[in-house]
User: Fold these one by one.
Assistant:
Number 1:
Amino acid sequence: MTAPAPLLSVRGMTHTWDGIHGCRDIDFDLYPGEVLCVVGESGSGKSTLLQAVSCQVAPQAGSVRYDLREEGLTDLATLSSARLRLLARTDWGFVRQNARDGLRMQVSAGANIAERLMAVGQRHYGGLREVAGNWLHKMEIDVGRLDDAPASFSGGMQQRLQIARNLVTHPRMVFMDEPTASLDVSVQARLLDLLRQLVSDLGLAAIVVTHDLAVARLLAHRTLVMRGGRVVESGLTDQILDDPQHPYTQLLVSSILQS
Amino acid sequence: MTSTDMPSFASATQAEVVRDPHYNFGYLDESTKRMLRRALLKAVAIPGYQVPFGSREMPLPYGWGTGGIQVTAAIIGAGDVLKVIDQGSDDTTNAINIRRFFARVTGVRTTESTRAASIVQTRHRIPETPLREGQIVVFQVPIPEPLRWLEPSETETRTMHALAEYGGMHVKLYEDIAQHGHIATTYDYPVVVNERYMMRPSPIPKFDNPKLDNNPALMLFGAGREKRVYAVPPYTRVKSLDFQDHPFTVEKWSDCCALCGSRDSYLDEIILDDQGTRRFVCSDTEYCADRQAAGHGGPAAGEYTA
């Protein structure tokens, strides 16, 4: 039996901001439908990794290859910026820690959800509105709030709205940077539950950056542990959390309050 | 761009004025005018594309038409006949002063007749009288960038233009329909020029947008503060944005013009007293006066002398 082709393949990727801080020699593969968590302390290079993989910054060394729908596994560095932007708008999603950074706050929830569809050329108002309503429903938000401004939503609702806005074009890969960090614990649990369900329903692949091992435990199939810009340990999430090998991972795991 | 090949412009309505010899012809110096013409040629070659130019300080404040005046100064020739309108009117302060300015620094004939003019400098309106080949309309533009409300960064909006990433523009129209039930944007209504560049047609009412499409005249747009010129060459396709189920429409009025009875022109609503009595009159004063002279009349015809 042949192994399925990865969606994303990262080899020897290095990006530093000043020659010291950043991430180095990152290797990993991401398969369709798989959730990968990147955990580590502040300054360990998690967010740099996310930015470099999603081509928001160009990696200084190594390669990032992505399985394009037409061409198969292609080095993203060879794509034009026009192709990259299109890819980012249609095939990828970006969920930011602060929902306000990822939403257009001056327009209604419906317009936020429909924006990506308009960007790829849908021009039927009624159709757009119906899709936006369906997504609100899927996100467990009252459809009656379709025309309300995101500013009138609670933090958890804003975060769910941001997720809907990203998923409306049915991307295959989603990048999430601390998606639950700014929410209180009960809202976090609900959002994680929703995310887990969406990931399995839509067959999404996701890279989730977090400093919260509970998020990794709940969402991720595999986990990378980063420290000082390098991956110190990687493997199945359960394996890493239950049997950590690297001293730093052992420290991380032992620092969680056991219930 | 003189009008030596257009004998029909000779019938100007106003007397010739004497040019003030202390100023160079057209106020700007020759190399500045050449720089502007170079930018305008590029603008005509790429319809709807905003070309940067070195905007000069003009003897009036930004917002009063410095962009339009510089464009007019760059293209005007001794044989041209100039018409200037502001809100459709030939006799508002701004229109009169710009007309007088050009009469003084160029000595060209000025007119209130759209037919007689070879150059029409305008703010807020396109004349109701159809334009024809050989005529040039110069628009005064406050903010040339249609994507500015979406994206505050100039480098980002330029990238969006380069890649034709215009999907976000529909967000504004979506929002209009969601909040008001119809597209409530009434002026500076975004258009796509030649199926490529997104353009702001300057603050003309959307009533005038259809006049931009396939117009035989050359349309030049100048933004003095923002240092940009752009153009719609003659017979260029200009399409107003819309949705399939909410097509583009122009303003409609329940009444006709009180003075000339026109139902086809853009009407201004005028409040007459504290009881809310109101009346609609043509915003294009020349068009209205022409119709009255030709014997057309509205409900209030004769109350005022046109």
Note: Chain B has seven helices and twelve strands.
Number 2:
Amino acid sequence: MIGPDGQLSPGNFGRLARAPWWLLAVALAATILVWKTATSVVYADIMRALLSGLGVTLAVTVIAFPLAIALGLAAALCLVSPHPVRRNVAALYVQLARGIPILVQIFIVAFVLVPLGVEAARWAGDAFPSLATLRASDVPMGARVVAALAFAYGAFEAETIRGGLTSLPRGQAEAARALGLTKGQALRLVLLPQTFRRILPTLGNDLISLLKDSSLVSVLGVRDITQEARLYASSTFRYTESLELLALLYLALTLLLALGVKALEHRYRRHAA
Amino acid sequence: MPPEMPPVLEARGIVKRFGAVTAVAGISLEVGAGRVTAILGPSGSGKSTLLRCLNFLELPDAGEVILDGVAVRPRDRDLDALRSRVGMVFQQFNLFPHLLVWENVALAPRAVRGTGREGARSLALRLLDRVGLADKADAHPSQLSGGQQQRAAIARALAMEPAVLLFDEPTSALDPELTGEVLAVMRALAADGTTMVVVTHEVAFARAVAHEVLFMDAGLVVERGPPEAVIANPAHERTRRFFGRGA
């Protein structure tokens, strides 16, 4: 762990021991996946079912993540604000979103908040006639899940961004302000670019977590890859094969993301301060 | 300088407290165009705090700052305007590590003045040339030595063509060799008629370059005047002790 020079080090093993063997294991699994799919009618069938849900899984992830970052950024700026109301509202949000299981949050958004919101919209229907006929069933389950996931993950991102922002040396904000940059410009041009470079590894982890948590949409019957696997398994009783392929597919996706994040990190590491 | 010309920068009765500690206990100063004011004194005497009050990095508890005859009110818009006309150089350089050296210099002209990319780049190259860093324009700050970083920071502070430049112990983080190259740049600026307020421990520099020296202790100005008086021939016992002329 910590070498004689006081630095974190991978240990004094040979080059073979330092090779990323885990990557080889995953590559092997992927090969098996492709091979089975290519040679077995059953696996090909399951794969076809899974792939029909892949779009939903990816869409939920890539829509919810930027929303979560935007929400987290707004909350983080409130958390570091000198304004006590903003600070407390943001702190309350973070505690709520972190303190309630994501599955429960999804249920609350889908079955309480959305119907309430639709009800409120109907009340306001006098002013907006287009809203008068709105019904809760007009709001797709997919959209409800995306909103719930963005709300839940926004709290993680808020803490991450706040941590990154406050880890910057004070002189950075001072130098920006001393040049005559407004508060907004100092944030946008000096502080946030450095913050995001610093928190990139954490953001990458959160993106991977979100991709996995997108499987929760299946509880609302939204047909992502998890839901497709469940449907296929329950209609054919081929649980082992379905879940095996499902797990391997998630692994492949998260691995791709991890490699992408590593590449970004590598690009920014040298001059990230 | 004819006496009827108003000072570029003026501070009246600046007071700054941190809790129970009074860091600056009522100090006034005037800096005329093209003049160099050096602020000397022991660590903790309030020199840096006074300097930081001049561009409101510290909000003074009392007193006012007057730039070009106009009193600055501590509101965001006024402060942004003041700061875009008052350059500052920090002890720790504070270059922006995510930007190239020329981008550091070009940032304020682009963001505050709306200068185009090409115009800002040529301005940056000109200023970097002036501090002897023309060849480092496309480097990252982390690739520069401390002295080079501080010179780049000076170029950055010059980019808004400030009416006055504030230096907060600009060489205190540098070894003697690097200190020399930064002081040389500051000497050249002074010779070109740049208006400067310099908080420093470099007594020889203050003596050679400053028109006026303020010697501070415990938040107050103990003695002020031309360097040959304050440094070479101090009247006050505390000043004599600081400059090592035995009481």
Note: DSSP finds ten helices and no strands in chain A.
Number 3:
Amino acid sequence: MDFFTQQDRAKSKTSVLIVYFSISVLLTILAIYGATAFFLTHFSGNGRPSDGLALFTDGLPWFDLELFLLVFGSVSLLIAIGSSVMMFRLSQGGKSVATLLGGRPLNPSTTQRDEIKLRNVVEEMSLASGLPMPELYLLDQEDGINAFAAGYTSSDAVVGVTKGCLQTLTRDELQGVIAHEFSHILNGDMRLNMRLACLTHGILFISETGKWIFQAAGRTVTSGSRGGKKDGLPIILVVMLAGGILTLIGSIGYFFSSALKAAISRQREFLADASAVQFTRNPSGISGVLKKIGGFKAGSALKAPEAGQASHFFFSQGVNFFLGNLLSTHPPLAERIRAIDPTFNYEFPKLAATFQAEDTADTTAKSLSSEFAPVSPSRASLVKPEQVINSVGKMDPTQLQLGQLLRAKIPEALFAAAHEPYSAQALLFAALVVDSEKEKTESSILTLAGENLSLETLKLIPAFQALPHSLRLPLIDLSLPALKLLSPAQYQKFRQTIQTLVEADLSISLFEYTLQKILIRHLDSHFSPARKPEVKFSSLNSILEPTRILLASLAYFDSSDPNVIDKVFKEGCKQLNTTEVSHDLPAQEACGLAQFDQSLNVLQYAVPSIKKNILYACATIVMFDSQITEQEEDLLRAIATTLDCPIPPFALRTQS
Amino acid sequence: MMILLALLAVVVVVVLLLAFTVIGIYNGLVTLRNRYKNAYAQIDVQLKRRYDLIPNLVETAKGYLKHESETLVAVTSARATAFSANQKAAANPGDPAAMTALSSAESGLTGALGRFMAVAEAYPDLKANQNMMQLSEELTSTENKVAFSRQAYNDAIMAFNTKRELFPNNFIATMFNFAAAELFEITNAAEKEAPKVSFT
């Protein structure tokens, strides 16, 4: 099943989620109604204690429409409020989940060895899969071994890791955990999880309100009694009782919401485990982690008070509901291990509470460089367009090794620069200088960014120039986390400088265009909080014109022979799988870079299945002449970034 | 009966709206506070790098600056003061007392370093030393990064303090103990004291 089908499937899973949720709400309401009816009959003036029992023995006169409507109305209101509160809290995307759990952002320029190890592992995987670097968070307070991935889209994706993970896992095992989380991101599970969190919070809201009332009233009692105010005491006690009852009732809700989460998330965990094994080609990584969790005293348990709400985001069972395995969000550890390693004998080696993994040196990349070398454009043969589509969002062991190699090939100076906000700016300026006319750009940087920053830029230029073209944009991708650390004012200045530099030479190269696209997609959205509107176009018919312009621009760019352009355009249109689109080539004036950009911006709101066809058509056009220039590669990357389809950097060529 | 219920519903809705507003403001303040704490973490990395460079500089220059021992001692002790001030500030970023102490310690260090570099200028052998050149270049680069991350931190502090003082956020800030945070500013002490260069 390819990336696009997975993403589409995630949508249909959401419908299933809504159905399950409605059933849970109905059952909760019925349970609360039953409890209310029971207590009212039991405690009402004209009833006797045995009346309560009569409810169960005598049959159905206990259905009181007015009471039912009252319960229905108030519980629904509470659930709706709870869900919208959570939606509001999670509106910031993945990092809201991280802050909810008490996470601390990982500093890209950290000097802690285990943090560096984590950062390197994630960077390799990001390079290998084409997915932009997710923001990394550390849960310092958690000793258990666990990790999570959260976010609505790949540009606000966040991966969090506990302190226990950093301390007890070897590099391979850490890689297995991160691969598992990446597969959640690529399978579209994250978005589903966010929705699930909002909905279940609605149900949990009842018990939370109850607890809050109980605690607030309790505080008034303890503070009031000192002042001698005993008058209000009975009222306060009643309020406390009401709070207690709400909490009790809310536990019913908790039961149903756990069942809901269990129904949705258990199956996906097996899938994510399988994907991770496929990616790392190393079953011992993930099975190692699971075995360690089984034998570790702290296991994978989480201490954060909000962990229960986010339990389904995690790698392993973080919070244990009292019914244990029945309602857990994750399959039992032993079963997961057996699925990967059939020889497992159900015995977990015990780990001391203070276990620390040995510091395995980073030898993986060095040992690889003798085996592989990125093939230069002239010598590599192109893959077929179908293979490009198949590689989108796919995780492949060869890609991972290439990702590690890529990282090793980047010179230390550039690497260090990419991890600090100040020098990351210089890195991007250097990229623009190397790409265009040197002198003009260098003097512009001096005036725009000041002397210090331009000196820093000058230092980086030689190393950047020596970098192969196919590594440049991936390196810039790696510097995005550091750039996100700029303050808003600093970012404004930086953006303006980039803008001015790009516009300085009056023509825009494709590298500059792609660079801007990356910045807009990943950084602008980070600094201006406006949430992107969701998918708008579910059928190609509404976006025929922009698609044609997009394909035509590519065709015009690919060649200068009018016959070839026409032929290539028609080939591309055929891949769209629709008879509605006209195969007439639009005029060249209508297909400049500006129109290309406009069309691309419209197309990013299409459904995944349409994006697949569009991407396929683009790949067909670009690869038609069995040759792909660096600029065409950049263009494809710009398209892939805007459409949110992660293409691994070497997907376009076969490696011998 | 129904009127009572309706009234209750209205009260509940009003209370909930109020609660929502409070939650929104509280979360906003928490976000901004976290932002300046994270911004401090960035300064911390750069400052530590600077503190690590200084002993190397002093070591390299010691052989050449045999008669300038006061300058060397001044740099070393200023570094030690700044180092401990940084540790206190890192434990509690934004805290006025810690930040003021750090500001003055760092100003002192900048001043001492400035005098040190000015003195070193007068010794052409030292200037030509490869190690010295590399170290002073790294120092300049690091100081740029310190200045840059300081700017980001101060931006974050301003954003937090502004939000905190707005109406009605100020009530919620006091209710939940959001204390005002302090900027990190360095005064260029070197401008006030002329470096003493001896020509013996």
Note: The longest helix of chain A spans residues 233-280.
